[in-house]
Amino acid sequence: MKGVFRPIAFVGSTFPIMCAMGCRLNPNVEIVGSYFPGWMISLTSGVVLTLVANTLLRRKGLDRSIGHPAIIYPGMVVLFTCLLWLCFFD
Q: How many CB atoms lie within 10 A of CB 17?
């Protein structure tokens, strides 16, 4: 009977700690007096990096050989957004 209560005690003691870990870093960034969420900055930067990658691929003539643009470019936006989020806000 004593072993049954151990998992409940473990979850009861670790759950508040896990919730508090989510509050350790403020994801907002101040830009000219306004606060923007980190995901918005990461998404904007991801779109800009995708446009830069598109320009570079067109200049090199590789844009036709990478695949369908409706799949590749949204995937690049997601990739750049997640990488920037992990590098700067996690």
A: 8
